[in-house]
Recover the amino acids of this structure.
């Protein structure tokens, strides 16, 4: 795997300049071949579908494993003792086991490369250093949280001195962030406020109740991730950005949402900062970095939908060379010209008529 | 592109010219190349007051008719709706299928099932079962048990809030109301405003006077300016809907008004090991497949799980294959409902998870039709998880059917229908067990979707609950 991993790393490092579909396809099929033999549960799934490395010629045909697979098995293609970090999924649904994703030292390196290349394109395409204020716990506090790990990589690579994690032993203290933001205003120092979407919402509420708002220096930006899993509080992306704008004084185009999943080493950014810096007028969506692919599948037929249509999201990520690289999610999204949009997570429909639904039962214990 | 204009309302003749304005809802069905516009009259407080006054004035018409005569008219209406050549039925099947996503075949079956149990004999039996004798509704009638003359009087006006889940079901409330000689205002669901007005038209065609005793309107559910006026005038309010809707209505009606709630319920089935013989397993599978497939599980009487007792000739695990065959064959007779992306995503996710658990060596077995048409999951669960519907049936193997109490206890307030396939000598014990759990109907497998008119729907005397008795007693005592 070492060699394959190195070739993938090399591909990632140059892929934004010359993205080569044929090279991607070759690497993807090699990853599939490796994982087919190395991950027994994945092999069983592929065999049931009648698919093996000998039967397919395109990455599009690689079977995706349901995210729940990571709750049932490690889906790790290397000996378990080589795992250096284990990240766990939030496991918000009651009664379900948490999933986990194993990373070897090499796997972490590969993820780091991807995080940096991605951020260079989508978070700091203007190539500036910023003070990173992070609405998340540090990796020391939350060693199993992949978001904390990723944000630490961003802080190290792009953060100026004074960058810090703002969720400590006492949880998130809004006054501390208010202080930091006031300092940034006074020093005219642009900040990157990054972290959990729910943390942002809590901060916006806090400020609104107290009539607090900011006018952060130009170049400031936000990155939020994590969504609103299992929480009643969910707001539309446009509303989120309106709050970013009214509370922080950061224009909507400088606010990006990131889709990250514990199961994957790569993340998917909104393209708005990148578009803004390139003065491109493309519509906001999540773009696939060149070492990943996302397909939007009609769950009724599992066929790819046309641009503009809804379906469930299927991701393929070459950085996942040591974990199953192709996953089928229960996220509902819409296919765009150059990427995809997230619309929400599949939930059992409200009961129509009088058959008792799962939803209702959990509402009325 | 085909365009249809449909009426989402029905009004007695005299009121039609009083409609001040209409609103329209437009429903596009690109896959069927059809656009449906549904016409709704604006329901203002003043207009509603007029409708109420007009319906109440027509109660006298119902009072003059005998229950027998009313049952004859209702019977004739059911006969119309049982006839595939009936023009309204054709139109209803097409539109309801588009609105609800049910296949036309399923809409037809649903209408058939609903009206087959609504014949004159059924209606009169239902009245007798709950009131003793229809004569109590026609005038003062001597009761031997009470040793007096009694009369049962229906409300001056009944209100019914319909749901959209079961095509053809709203007629049940209209029939019950007319049997107790009460005019009725129905609130059609915006998701299926097609059937109730058409059924009312049928009644008007058969007997114009009866047609003046019903109105079907539509307003935003929970609109207090409208519903407060309505509830003030109705001694009985029948509600189909979620528990939250039923509770909300109960809180808002005047103290003397009786609410008959039909909220969400859960059905299930249980098969004894003696029924799982090589000779009978296929027949049992066909019956269970019918229970699961009809209404695509959207009815409160539909089973969400079937418990199968271990120790028979055919194990629950083996039974899955027989059931799969039966599901597949019924899928042709009654194609499954159109799935939304959201519903399909949930089904796909649940199937994928079960499949992985099966592949991972857990005690789970899954079989599914193409394109999510049906799903069978067999696993020894320890708790009952409701199904995502759309013919997703869980088979739970149990050592002894008596053990199902542990599964059902937490859902006690929600129990409705139980399909039971066991030897006769086991029935009394299991009947008692199911009754203690709050089950309101027990029937053989294969009969779950077809309750009789006489069934105590939701465990209630739905006709009995509607009347108010007057007893003239002690006149002959010394």
């Amino acid at each position: 795997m070492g060699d394959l991993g190195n070739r993938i790393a090399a591909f990632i490092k140059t892929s934004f300049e010359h993205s080569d579909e044929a090279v991607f396809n070759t690497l993807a099929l090699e990853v599939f071949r490796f994982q087919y033999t190395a991950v027994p549960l994945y092999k069983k799934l592929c065999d049931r579908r009648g698919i093996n490395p000998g039967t397919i010629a395109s990455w599009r045909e690689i079977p995706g494993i349901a995210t729940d697979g990571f709750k049932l098995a490690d889906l790790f293609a290397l000996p378990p003792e080589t795992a250096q970090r284990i990240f766990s999924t939030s496991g918000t649904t009651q009664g379900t086991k948490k999933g986990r994703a194993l990373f070897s030292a090499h796997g972490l390196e590969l993820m780091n490369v991807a995080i940096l290349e991605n951020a260079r394109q989508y978070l700091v395409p203007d190539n500036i250093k910023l003070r990173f204020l992070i609405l998340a716990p540090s990796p020391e506090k939350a060693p199993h949280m992949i978001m904390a790990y990723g944000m630490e990589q961003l802080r190290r690579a792009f953060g100026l001195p004074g960058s810090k994690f703002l969720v400590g032993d006492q949880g998130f203290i809004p006054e501390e962030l208010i202080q930091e933001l006031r300092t940034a205003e006074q020093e005219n120092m642009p900040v990157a406020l990054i972290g959990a979407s729910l943390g942002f919402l809590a901060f916006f509420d806090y400020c609104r109740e107290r009539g607090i708002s900011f006018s952060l220096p130009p170049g400031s930006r936000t990155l939020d991730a994590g969504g609103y899993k299992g929480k009643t509080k969910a707001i539309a992306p446009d509303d989120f950005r309106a709050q970013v704008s009214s509370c922080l004084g950061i224009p909507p185009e400088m606010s990006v949402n990131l889709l990250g999943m514990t199961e994957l080493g790569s993340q998917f950014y909104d393209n708005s900062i990148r578009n803004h810096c390139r003065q491109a007028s493309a519509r906001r969506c999540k773009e696939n970095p060149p070492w990943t692919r996302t397909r939007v599948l009609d769950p009724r037929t599992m066929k790819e939908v046309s641009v503009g249509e809804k379906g469930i999201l299927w991701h393929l990520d070459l950085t996942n060379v040591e974990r199953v690289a192709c996953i089928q999610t229960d996220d509902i999204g819409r296919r765009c010209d150059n990427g995809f949009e997230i619309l929400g997570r599949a939930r059992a429909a409200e009961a129509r008529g009088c058959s008792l639904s799962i939803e209702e039962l959990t509402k009325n214990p | 592109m085909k365009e249809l204009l449909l009426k989402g309302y029905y009004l007695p003749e005299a009121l039609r010219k009083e409609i001040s304005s209409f609103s329209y809802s437009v429903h596009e069905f690109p896959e069927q190349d059809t656009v449906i516009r549904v016409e709704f009259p604006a329901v203002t407080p003043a207009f509603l007051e007029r409708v109420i006054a007009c319906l109440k004035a027509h109660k006298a018409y119902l009072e003059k008719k005998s229950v027998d005569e009313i049952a004859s008219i209702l019977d004739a209406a059911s006969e119309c709706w049982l006839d595939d050549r009936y023009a309204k039925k054709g139109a209803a099947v097409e539109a309801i299928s588009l609105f609800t996503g049910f296949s036309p075949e399923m809409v037809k079956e649903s209408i058939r099932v609903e009206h087959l149990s609504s014949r004159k004999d059924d209606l009169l039996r239902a009245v007798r079962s709950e009131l003793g004798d229809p004569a109590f509704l026609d005038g003062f009638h001597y009761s031997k048990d009470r040793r007096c003359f009694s009369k049962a009087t229906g409300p001056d006006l009944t209100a019914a809030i319909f749901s959209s889940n079961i095509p053809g079901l709203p007629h049940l409330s209209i029939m019950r109301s007319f049997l107790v000689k009460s005019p009725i205002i129905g609130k059609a669901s915006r998701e299926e405003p097609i059937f109730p007005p058409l059924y009312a038209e049928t009644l008007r065609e058969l007997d114009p006077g009866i047609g003046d005793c019903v109105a079907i309107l539509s307003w935003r559910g929970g609109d207090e300016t409208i519903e407060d006026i309505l509830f003030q005038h109705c001694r009985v309010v029948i509600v189909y809907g979620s528990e939250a809707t039923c509770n909300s209505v109960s809180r808002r009606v005047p103290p003397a008004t009786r609410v008959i709630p039909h909220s969400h319920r859960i059905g299930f089935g249980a098969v004894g090991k003696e029924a799982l013989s090589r000779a009978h397993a296929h027949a049992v599978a066909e019956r269970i497949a019918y229970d699961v497939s009809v209404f695509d599980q959207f009815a409160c009487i539909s089973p969400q799980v079937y418990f199968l007792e271990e120790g028979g000739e055919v194990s629950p695990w083996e039974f899955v294959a027989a059931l799969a065959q039966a599901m597949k064959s019924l899928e042709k007779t009654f194609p499954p409902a159109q799935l939304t992306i959201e519903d399909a995503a949930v089904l796909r996710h649940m199937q994928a998870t079960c499949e992985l658990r099966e592949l991972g060596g857990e005690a789970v077995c899954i079989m599914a039709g193409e394109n999510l048409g049906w799903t069978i999951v067999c696993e020894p669960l320890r708790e009952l998880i409701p199904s995502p519907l759309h013919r997703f049936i869980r088979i739970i193997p149990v050592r002894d059917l008596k053990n199902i109490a542990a599964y059902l206890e937490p859902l006690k307030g929600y129990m409705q229908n139980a399909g039971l396939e066991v030897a006769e000598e086991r029935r009394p014990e299991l009947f008692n067990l199911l009754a203690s759990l709050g089950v309101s109907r027990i029937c053989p497998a294969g009969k779950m979707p077809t309750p009789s008119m006489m069934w105590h729907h939701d465990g209630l005397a739905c006709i009995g609950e509607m009347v108010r008795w007057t007893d003239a007693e002690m006149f002959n005592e010394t």
